[in-house]
């Protein structure tokens, strides 16, 4: 490996608590966030907390959700790439850099993705000095391809849509076979740096958020449920940390009804970009889940248009929302975020939660990534007017029912686990012994412990 100094950024602890970053570095990072978003110092802006150390979260108004249970949205639009996936990509890469498994002076990185992970990989990989290639399905939004190229990475489009992940894997293997000495594949679906970022950073931030909200008279300091759409299943790892503190917290995975893999061992194409990848990922701790909820992709897109279109904003104002709330809602959601809200409402009703409960969910990105999708929606269904806005709000949100919910019984959890065999053992080279090991908590505890080892190695590297 090269002896030249490599670029690295924060520890896991510094991403959780950015005030622990050396003050000179942090101030420079805050300054460069607007001045030069492509400067590598922005690696130190990867956090759920803003420059004032406030958690980026928003409690949805009851007028929108129709339920008295506070639904708390962690929104990721202010991360360096506009999505929290940048945290996962950084964690995956930095873990390998400090262990001398990859070298920017030697290796080219392959980032298999259906969207935001590829965007994150393009940004992080190029900021850390690596040549990066993103593999992305051709039917993803045009904005995704443009952003990846703007960060300095190459992008290869593979056939299909969000759920066509095997095609991504196949292309990655093809590139590796052409130059195994140079190519390194950083697969979000199997790399545990993705899991560790969300277990430690997202999970602990959620616990701290619940305490902060209790001081404001919202909830009692305990998270009753977490609802998160699963693509790589990195985000839902936050539930593993929360359950260590409150074991009765319900952890609920969300997927599209058009591709109900966990729900019904199903398959199919859909357009909730970022989730529903037609397989159970290697890093998904399925035996720690309590349920799966499925939502419609068209409802998710129509809901996003309701939140972001000028007519939708006018309708929300008529509900009594302040201008500030209307603009906040319009700015923090993408398609999967709206899907998560629908799922959260469904689970509030299913579990019979009340005003003192808290449900947490995620808005992974925002409307900036979906203007082309909204344009296509208008062309297909016509321009939304106030009557249609009211209809969408009532049907999609206020009348969200308790259908398409599957509880995590012991037998159901084994089905979720067993589904990993077909992707990971038959296709991706894992062994049956490795798969069976995932049924033990020791396996997952070992993954969690690597956070502290990695932080030690990052500090040692920065001091060397």
Describe the structure.
The chain has 464 residues and is an alpha/beta fold. It folds into three domains: 16-45, no CATH class; 57-75 and 196-410, Rossmann fold (3-Layer(aba) Sandwich); 83-188, Rossmann fold (3-Layer(aba) Sandwich), CATH 3.40.50.1100. Helices cover 48% and strands 11% of the residues. It has a seven-stranded mixed β-sheet. The longest helix has 24 residues, at 192-215. It is globular and about 65 Å long.
For this structure, what is the CATH class of the largest domain? Alpha Beta
Helix content: 40-55%
Tell me the overall shape. Answer: globular
Second CATH tier, the architecture of the largest domain: 3-Layer(aba) Sandwich
Question: What brief labels describe this structure?
Answer:
single chain; 464 residues; alpha/beta; Rossmann fold; 7-stranded mixed beta sheet; 4-stranded parallel beta sheet; 20 helices; 48% helix; 11% strand; globular
